[in-house]
Input
Amino acid sequence: MKDLSMHIMDIVQNSVRAKAGNVTLSISLDEQWLTIKVEDDGSGMDKETLEKVTDPFYTSRTTRKVGMGIPLILQNAELTDGNMTLESELGKGTTLIAKFGRTHIDRPPMGDIASTAAMMITGNDGVNLQFEVKKGADEFAISTNEVKEVMGDVDIRLPKVTSFLKEMIEENLKELNIEFD
Output
C-alpha cells in the first residue's frame, strides 16, 4: 500500500466485515511518533486467529488465499523503528495500534486522510465511525452519528455530503496546524 490512509481504509474495512457497530479511528502525533489506532466492537478474534493474522498467507476471507493488510502495516511500522500491537476478544472487538517513526525516511506518506475519513464516515451504513486527530493539546473529532444529527433527513451517503466532509476535515486540520508529511 502506497500510503497510510490506504492501510487505515483496509483496517477499518476489516472492522466493518467483523460487523462492528462502532469503530474509532484515532491518529496522534508527537515529536517522535505518528500513531494510528483502530478500535471496534465487532466480532473479535479467538486466540488462534489472533496469532495467525500477521502471516500474509492467512486470511479469513474466502475470495482469496492471502491477507496482506495487517502484515503490511506491521512491516511498515517496523521499518520506521515503530511497532504494532493487536488485541482482540471474541465477541467483544479488536484494537490495532501501529506506531510509525514520524520523521523516519521509510515512513509512508499519510495520503489523503481527509478523503479517506469522509468516505468511511459516509460509506458504511449502520456503522458509527469516530475519527479523531490529536497533536499536543490540539484535537479534532467527528463521527457518523454527529453528521447524521446535523444533516437531519439528508442521506449522508450522497457524494455532495462526502465532498463537504472532506473539505471540512481539511479545513479543521489546517486550522489546528496538523500536518502529517
The radius of gyration is 16 Å. The helical segments are 4-17, 47-52, 69-79, 113-123, 144-151, 159-175. The domain at 4-175 is CATH 3.30.565.10 (Heat Shock Protein 90).
